[in-house]
Design a protein that fits this description.
seven-stranded mixed beta sheet; about 30% strand; alpha+beta
């Protein structure tokens, strides 16, 4: 899948805010009122060659979750958050989608060290993240929901 990443537009932010996921993945559903959050400068839209919205990425502290444990996000790693359009999830696009986001972030933020946080039951995402080179670092507990999440890290090669 050929992808492009660009600045978030209000149109794309509105579309993302309406996405709904089924079953256990409903944890990722939006309330539809977080448009400003997507327009904060840390979020980027990901589209296919036809200009159709495929997903989004966010980078930095915005990609972290509040945890019961202290000091789980050490310095030196860029946090990455992401979301794929619900109808594309579970169809094998995860690794190429994530890889495009990592390439973009590597160029924009001049780093090769990435970290992401994912809910423990999201096995399909964890599988894709592992295939993309991420390794589990530790399990943490979400401060508000008490849900279990894992923090994963990846160090990529420095490509020219």
């Amino acid at each position: 899948m050929e992808l492009s990443i660009t600045a978030m537009t209000e149109e794309n932010a509105n579309a993302i805010a309406q996405w709904t996921y089924d079953d256990i993945y409903s944890l990722y559903n939006n309330t539809g009122d977080n448009i400003d959050g997507y327009m904060d400068g840390t979020h980027f839209a990901c589209t296919n060659l036809n200009g159709e919205l495929v997903g989004y990425f966010c980078f930095g502290e915005e990609a972290r979750i509040p945890t019961e444990e202290n000091d789980v996000y050490d310095e030196g790693f860029l946090d990455i958050g992401l979301g794929m359009r619900p109808d594309l999830c579970g169809k094998g696009y995860g690794v190429s989608f994530l890889s495009k986001g990592l390439e973009f972030a590597q160029e924009l933020y001049k780093t090769t060290q990435f970290r992401l946080t994912v809910v423990t039951f999201n096995e399909r995402a964890i599988k894709a993240y592992t295939k993309a080179g991420f390794l589990v670092e530790r399990e943490v507990t979400h401060l508000n929901t008490k849900g279990k999440f894992i923090i994963m890290k990846c160090v990529r090669e420095n490509t020219p």
